[in-house]
Amino acid sequence: MADDARIDPRYAAQFQRGFDPARDASPVRRGPMRLEGGPPATAPRVPDPPRKAPAQPVEVPEDAEELTPAVAPTRVASTWWDWLLPGIGAVFIMIALMLLWSMATDTGAFYGSGVTSEWEVFLEQARWMLPSPLLTAGVVAITGGIVLQAVRPRE
């Protein structure tokens, strides 16, 4: 706005520099305006769907039960694949618990076992390191098996 004396029409006049209510009051009313002639025309309504005649009762012959076989609800049979993942998880947890028990009852670890060969050192280290990953893998496998059973599609 180059001239400070003029009122910029983009903004409310009473908040601009140089506003004089006697001089700058516009006859145009801001806000909603009432239209003459009622509300504006709207789009035509979509016609209602066609109405169907009520269904007539169907007569069933007396021997109809003989013609239509009884169908039992189908149930998906449980297979050994369904229990494979939780079973592997249970085996992992049992191995981890056995390793923890062997560590808890091993007096040689506290009093010096006299481990001399590399193979014995490897087995000792494996016994100390394996229980935590085996427990984690077992819990994850059992949880995964339960979740897979829950989301498996049924017939």
UniProtKB/TrEMBL annotation:
Keywords attached to this entry = Membrane, Transmembrane, Transmembrane helix
Q: What is this protein called?
A: Uncharacterized protein
- Does Membrane show up as a keyword for this record? yes
Membrane-spanning residues: 83-104, 128-151
Region (Disordered) residue ranges read 1-66
